[in-house]
Design a protein that fits this description.
By secondary structure, the chain is an alpha/beta fold. The protein has helices at 3-13, 48-53, 64-83, 99-112, 130-133, 142-148, 176-180, 183-195, 213-217, 235-244, and strands spanning 18-22, 42-43, 87-92, 117-122, 157-158, 164-167, 199-204, 223-229, 250-256. It has 10 helices and 9 strands.
């Protein structure tokens, strides 16, 4: 049995509810709230070629990648609705295993579903990257909220995708774990959760084995999704990552770069 099969067996033993394989070879509406209004939130028009270049799904695609994310979306939504959850943190064991792109694409797929709005938050405060996938350089980021009390309304942007708003980070914070466990972080999460009743919030979190950031922040999220890279994430690293998430409900795993195909196990 190869190591990725052993790793997946280990995840299953921890009660994983969602398991998927998503490869990244290359990014209708209704709401119980009033229609999303972007006259306050800055709107950034991101061209389809930018999304394609950065492997971000778009509404113009019709391929196996879109289908894979729709299946992942449905399974995630079913589990979250069962539990009454609205927040999901996405992480990986190590760097460069596809967690940020998975968070972005899942957020877009969720926004295309017809029952809610979606907020994508870049809480990888050490190495923020979400904005770069849209090739947009925001004026402010989450660090400005923590350091300078910049209003969240001045930081948010809509990347031209209905029902999706992004809260970006730009400048890295050296004291990121302290920031993520601070009263300001708790107040922010509560504000984001309570502002819109039907909003789903996706947090792009740092890799679990690089710092204590996720452990510091995980008490404030409802659930987690773990990205595993085929051929890279080893059993020992996965076990350690799972230990760090032991107090956070784990929805399951996303197996990334699996044989160049997009299919669910």
């Amino acid at each position: 049995m190869n190591r990725i099969k052993r790793a997946l067996r280990l995840v299953r033993s921890h009660g994983s509810m969602v398991e998927s394989k998503v490869s990244h070879p290359i990014g209708e509406r209704y709401s119980n709230e009033q229609e999303t209004n972007y006259h306050v939130t800055k709107k950034v028009n991101v061209f389809p070629n930018v999304l394609k270049r950065n492997r971000v799904i778009s509404t113009h695609q019709n391929d196996s990648i879109i289908s894979a994310y729709k299946i992942l979306r449905t399974r995630v939504l079913q589990r979250m609705k069962e539990q009454g959850w609205s927040t999901l943190g996405i992480s990986s064991a190590n760097q460069n295993e596809g967690k940020s792109l998975t968070a972005i694409n899942l957020a877009i797929s969720l926004a295309q579903e017809t029952q809610h709005t979606v907020l994508l938050v870049d809480f990888d405060l050490r190495e923020p990257s979400v904005h770069s996938y849209f090739e947009h350089i925001p004026e402010y980021g989450v660090s400005d909220y923590f350091l300078n009390d910049t209003p969240i309304e001045d930081i948010l942007f809509n990347p031209g995708i209905d029902d999706l708003v992004v809260l970006p980070s730009i400048k890295p914070l050296s004291n990121s774990s302290e920031a993520l466990s601070s009263p300001k972080a708790i107040d922010l999460v509560n504000e984001l959760k309570n502002r819109y009743r039907d909003r789903i919030i996706i947090f792009d979190l740092p890799p679990l084995l690089n710092s204590d950031d996720v452990m510091a922040f995980s008490p404030y999220i409802d659930s987690a999704l773990l990205v595993i890279e085929d051929g890279k994430t080893g059993r020992d690293g996965l076990q350690q990552a799972l230990n760090y998430l032991e107090k956070t409900p784990l929805l399951g795993t996303v197996l990334n770069k699996s044989g160049g195909k997009s299919q669910f196990a």
